Amino acid sequence: MSTPSLPARANAALARETRALATVDSGWSTETLGGGRLRERGARIWRLRWVTQVFWLAVILVIGWQFVVWVRGIENGYASVSRPPGVEGFLPLSGMLSLRHFLETGSVSPIRPAAFVIFLLVVASGVLLKRAFCSWICPIGTLSELLAGASRRLFRRKIALPRLLDWPLRSLKYLLLLFFASAIFVQMSPPGVAHFLDSPYNRVADVKMLYFFEHLSPTAVKVLLGLGGLSLLVPYFWCRYLCPYGGLLGALSLLSPLKITRHAASCIDCGLCTKACPTHLPVERLTRVRSDECFGCLSCIAACPVPRALRVETPGPWRRGVRPVAFAALLLVLFGGGILAAKSAGVWRTSVSDDEYSRRVRELDGPEYGHPR
Question: Most CB contacts within 10 A, which of 15, 239, 311, 325?
Fold first, then answer.
């Protein structure tokens, strides 16, 4: 009997691991796991999120690469590839302004439709899946997690600010969110919103964003290095204290029907869930994790030695458990399905033509391309 070739063995191993990821916690066992079995289960839940993060990061990198190639083309008057609308996901203010415009007019602005769609999908993820966007999709969240891992290896422990500092600092992201929301939804008039959306600045805001990062000023470099250093010293510093998107998702997550739920009858009070939580939530003392700081990362579930004791569940008397693979699939269906629906409805690609982009790129030094105030 011949020995299977190396590619065949690799494919078989990949198939086994894929089945294992898909079926992890499918039985909701009440057995207490230990040793290798606990590590194996935890690693599979972590690996599921890691694969998801890598997938979305790859999608974002492909979008970024295609956008750079497209910009280089329009600079020379001819685009060799099409502009990827997904780049508008990095223009959340345009998305918020488009939402204001939609609420007032019932129509989607044709200038930045993808920004509007992506903003709505991010909001929907917060309402349905807590802050899972932060820990499963967001590239800044992924980078923050890498820095948090480096911090643990460097300092040999999880660093947290004292509570007297932590609570005031956590309010900063909500103050920033309130500032932007007030400016867009309260202070700006409907004609002002329409003027911004159709302004020369907004029509090429994506290109200006690229040029900003390609030609960082010394001040911007210092700020980015400072944020990176702070995120190394205090893990998730940006996500926990400064990100307005995180503040928005945190507030919306209070409405989420899917929450980490602890079953006291099965809990063995080992405290591993609290120790694993990246935001230092006292999971071992809670019945349902309602906190706005819960990332929905499932780290606590991965660390729990009793699969039945801690899981994502729906509320009420019809309570149902949601396995990790289903949680990841819900995110994929939400964003993938939402983008496909937007494409079908014709609210995905901008109305700004390549020729207009090419003309405006040559004029970017003009005063009309400053940020409208």
Answer: 239
Check: pTM over 0.85? Answer yes or no: yes
Position 25 in a domain? no
Supply 357's token pair. 């982009």
Cβ–Cβ < 8 Å for 98, 108: yes
Q: Which residues contact 56 (CB under 8 A, 6 or more apart)?
A: 136, 137, 139
Pairwise CA distance, residues 84 & 178, whole Å: 30
Q: Which domain holds residue 360?
A: 32-72+80-365
Q: What is the pLDDT of residues 9-52, one digit of tens each?
A: 555 655 666 666 666 766 666 677 777 888 888 899 999 999 99
Strand order in the sheet with 310-313: 259-262, 310-313, 321-322
Token pair 């009997």 is at which residue? 1
| Helix 190-197 vs helix 92-105: crossing angle, to nearest 10 | 130
Please report whether residue 281 resides in a domain: yes
List, for residues 202-214, the tens digit of each pLDDT value. 999 999 999 999 9
* Number of structural domains the chain divides into: 1
Residue 248 lies in a domain: yes
